[in-house]
Amino acid sequence: MTRPSSRHTDAELAAVIAEGAGQLLLGVGHGGLLDRRELGDVGDALAEAWISRVLTRQRPRDAVLSEEADDDLARLGAERVWIIDPLDGTSEFSRGTTHWAVHVALTVDGRPVAAAVSLPAQGEVYRSDEVPPADGPLTGRIAVSRYGHSYPSATVSDRLGLDAVHIGSAGAKAMAVVRGDVDAYVHAGGQFEWDNCAPVGVAEAAGLHCSRLSGAPIVYNNPQPYMPDFVICRREIADDLLEALRSPW
């Protein structure tokens, strides 16, 4: 593996970038000078430009896959690939809610090895090198979209007796599991790798179960970065949750 030279470890750099981009995004809404659509557009562009410049400076040999940048397929031959969502939950950000995030993750051979998720409006940063284990009491709750259940999440909710908690962005839902506010986050509506790579990296570091809905491992840096489904949940309920998904009837 080619190791970069920097005063930051990979995990430290992920956290600093996630926090810094979050601070920039908080500034975009200062004074209420932009309307909702402008907020989202400017936020996406500003966070992307800053993160791109920082990674070019700090990790010039690494490849990058970002929601807001053109996909350079040279990443497919790279061992180290940063997967970035500069603003996860643009609609939540534009609406002025607190349920939006910044995702920064480094993958090596398709697996997240350093990750950070910032929830700037909540003043929180979760990082894979410092996240505590998710071992508190089970809550009997599942994170769902503000629009409600998907069919798989409704199945899990019914079979395991989990009450729904409505949360905005993917990062905010995943960190609710990490934080111990809910026991599971089941997604089946289709996402891209940048939507969940950093959340999965942090969740795995916290000892949570992360997989596709089939139970298969999650692998990143694919030629087509579409990610149809995944689950993040407490290990205590993982077997029952996956069984419910395999036998919905």
Labels describing this entry:
7 helices, Fructose-1,6-Bisphosphatase, Chain A, domain 1, globular, alpha/beta, five-stranded mixed β-sheet, 249 residues, D-Maltodextrin-Binding Protein, domain 2, 2 domains
Descriptive overview:
The mean pLDDT is 94. The protein is built from seven helices and twelve strands. It is of the alpha/beta class and 249 residues long. Helices cover 37% and strands 23% of the residues. The chain starts with 9 loop residues before the first helix and ends with a helix. It has two domains: 10-127, 2-Layer Sandwich (Fructose-1,6-Bisphosphatase, Chain A, domain 1); 141-246, 3-Layer(aba) Sandwich (D-Maltodextrin-Binding Protein, domain 2), CATH 3.40.190. The strands form three sheets. A five-stranded mixed beta sheet has the order 1-2-3-4-5. It has a five-stranded mixed beta sheet with strand order 7-6-8-12-10, sandwiched between helices. The chain is globular, with a radius of gyration of 17 Å. It has helices spanning 10-28, 36-58, 90-95, 151-160, 170-179, 193-205, 235-246; strands at 63-66, 80-88, 101-108, 111-119, 124-127, 141-144, 163-166, 184-187, 191-192, 209-211, 226-227, 230-233.
